[in-house]
Amino acid sequence: MNSICLYDDGKHKYYLLGWEETEEPNMVPTNQYLIVHDNKGFLLDPGGAHVFPRVLANVSEIIAPENIEGIFYSHQDPDVSSGITMWLTIASRAKIYISELWIRFLPHFGVFDKNRIVGLKDRGEKGVRFSGYTLDFVPAHFLHAPGHFNVYDPISKILFSGDIGVSLLPFSQRVQVYEGDFKNLVSAMEGFHKRYMSSNAACKIWVDRVSEYEIDMIAPQHGAVLKGSVAKEFLNWFKTLKCGSDIIEQFYGR
After folding, report:
1. Rounded to two decimals, what is the model's pTM?
2. CA-based Rg of the chain, rounded to a whole angstrom?
3. Which of 24, 62, 135, 148 lies at a 20 to 30 A Cα distance from 71?
4. For 251, what's the count of Cα atoms within 13 Å in the CB-facing half-sphere?
5. What's the CA gap between 26 and 28, in Å, rounded?
6. Among 67-76, 148-157, 173-182, 244-253, where is mean pLDDT lowest?
7. In the chain, what's the furthest Cα-to-Cα distance?
């Protein structure tokens, strides 16, 4: 199902799960990720009902769904979270990790069992322990959602960045991992980030926070994974980006 392994040390693995094989009009392709450690899984932004059959097939090729111990939702958008009830049924032992801000909205998705929900406080949390490894939940608020989180994996040194770092390449030019000239990627990033990110102030504080980490890859929810020097160049570009309220007049027109 064309999943690729971004990291593998024999014990700890980090997968980018398969993409849609064909492009559908008015649909934005989404990325889903799976961390596996000693046959236990942690699923990141598994997506909406539309992609659930494909993502389940991807996961099942790697690990039994009942061995998923955690499912992370970066924010509330339907392309991220509308498949939540199906995943709660399939991954029957998994806890859901999501910003506290969105918990009260989960009943609208049909989720009523709060015992399975772990609310993330605004400041985030470091060193959250799972089966033999830890993850950091990193604040990324107002980029673009008011309650938005990323996940840093200290073993693979991969930062799952949610809606930050998105590139919207034409279907014929899509790549799963990008290691080329960052300048060639800017045109596929600029429009999205200027419109969906709230302000340069939010960009700066996020870059300052994630720059504390050693990052080998930035893995967004849409588009290519940014690897090596491309990840660092993106952070430098994003820190100076004028977006959202900085350029609000552009969106109202005259």
Report:
1. 0.93
2. 17
3. 24
4. 13
5. 7
6. 173-182
7. 58
